[in-house]
Amino acid sequence: MEISEVSRLIETEIPGCRLTVSGEGCSFSVVVVSDAFEGLTPVQRQRKVLAAVKEPLASGALHALTMKVYTPSEWRQEPQRAEASSGSGE
Question: What is the pTM of this model?
Answer without folding.
Answer: 0.83
